[in-house]
Design brief:
Blueprint: H1 19-23, E1 27-31, E2 34-41, E3 49-50, E4 57-58, E5 64-69, E6 78-80, H2 82-86
Antiparallel strand pairs: 1-2, 2-5, 3-4, 5-6
C-alpha cells in the first residue's frame, strides 16, 4: 500500500486555471487621482523594507503589499504593510527619522 497524497495531482487541477492566476494577483486601484498597481506579497527572502504609510520596517518573511503608480517604472515601487495600504486615505506618513538618516 502506498502512502496517501495530501495534495492533488497537477493534472487534477482545474483546466481553466493557468499559472498566471497563482502569481498574478496584481490589480489596479485609484488613489490620489492616479492609477496604482497593487500586488500582495507573501514575504521577502531576507530583505527588510520600510513602509511609507507608517515609516516602520517590514521584516523579512512578513506578508505585505507592493504598490507603484501605473505609468511609472519599477523604481517607484513601494512596500507597504497591508493595514497601512488599506488605511492610506486615513493617515499620512509620519517621518520620525533624523534629517540625515538613510531612506530605504
Amino acid at each position: 500500500m502506498s502512502p496517501r497524497r495530501n495534495r492533488p495531482h497537477r493534472a487534477a487541477t482545474s483546466p481553466e486555471r493557468n499559472d498566471d492566476d497563482r502569481h498574478g494577483l496584481e490589480r489596479s486601484e485609484t488613489w490620489q487621482d492616479e492609477e496604482w498597481v497593487m500586488r500582495p506579497v507573501a514575504g521577502s527572502a531576507g530583505k527588510t523594507y520600510r513602509c511609507p504609510g507608517c515609516d516602520q520596517e517590514i521584516p523579512p518573511g512578513v506578508g505585505h503589499v507592493v504598490a507603484w503608480p501605473e505609468h511609472h517604472g519599477v523604481n517607484d515601487r513601494r512596500h507597504w504593510h497591508r493595514a497601512c495600504w488599506n488605511a492610506r486615505d486615513r493617515r499620512a506618513p509620519r517621518t520620525q527619522r533624523s534629517r540625515n538618516a538613510p531612506r530605504y
